[in-house]
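Possible race condition, two jobs.
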Amino acid sequence: MTSKTGFIASLLSIVLLLSLTATGAVAKPIEISFSNFFPPSHIHGQLGQAYCDEIEKRTDGKVKMTYYPGGSLITAPQTYGAIVDGITDIGLSVLGYSRGVFPALEAIDLPMGYKSGTQATKIINAFYEKFQPQELNKVKVMLFTAHGPGLIHSKDPIRTLEDIKGMKVRCYGFSVKVVEALGAVPVAMPQNQAYEALQKGVVSALSSL
């Protein structure tokens, strides 16, 4: 399995992996499952497939990767729990989708005005390396990645704070508090449900976080 321009410190995707221990000689390929909530056509979905292909290539087929993009095995909010429970070996998700599970790391999602995804990614990884929060002791963290400044996309123009008051805004995790502070109505849901929610009128605006 980040933030911004005065709106939100965006959080990041986090990739988690349970420790895998091989015992004795392995006669058949080691099988590893990888769940990714991004659809196959999305760049993160494509990168997930490329990762699986590269693992199999570099191990000469001794490791067999089974890839589940688009939430085909588990939904984004279920990812962390599914890894801990052994439903999937590797998962790409967002810290904010597991609200309350990562209290120390929520500090990274505060609206601190990160200038870019690169800066935010460096900060989240440095934070983890320095503090090693116990909330992640049940899994093996492979990497953290963050995106650039967050934006709000809406059907109607938002030029002042008055324009956003009462507007239903798709968000998640800590950004729920930011949306409330702006006077809007937070509607929590993972990113992959946002397009349909806007199309059906469940929300009037989307936060890109």
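Job #2 (started ~2 s after job #1):
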Amino acid sequence: MIIKNMRYDSLIIDIGDILAKRRKQAYYAVNTILVNTYWQIGKLIIEYEQKGSRRAEYGAELLKCLSEYLTVYGKGFSKSNIYLMRQFYLKYPKFQTVSGKLSWSHYSELLSIGDDLTGQFYEKQSLNDGWSVRELKRHFVGEIK
């Protein structure tokens, strides 16, 4: 039987600290990969559309078809989410300008803000103040009431 003492308590705390730190790192790594993946999907859609001569006529149909076919890869490919991926690439044509500290849910909310200047303000506030998506929604919805 292990005798609980100060060294044992310290060991437990140290292990807990390592786990918490690594879990946070894993979250940010997965988040960055997801955001980059959605940016790349948006880029592919835009490139595909720009090569088509009837872009305006089939744009909505393209997103609907993609949504139907991409479900074989799992969830997250609703027509509205694919539209957001497309908008994401248009708003951030250089991925280097995208922050790894914000999640796809943050960017989805920011893309729904019509005014670019307002969107930039809330993006900076989310980064500077470490807002969760819920906090971002609360601040923005509170602002427009």
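The helical segments are 6-51, 55-70, 79-91, 104-111, 116-129, 133-144.
Logs attached separately.
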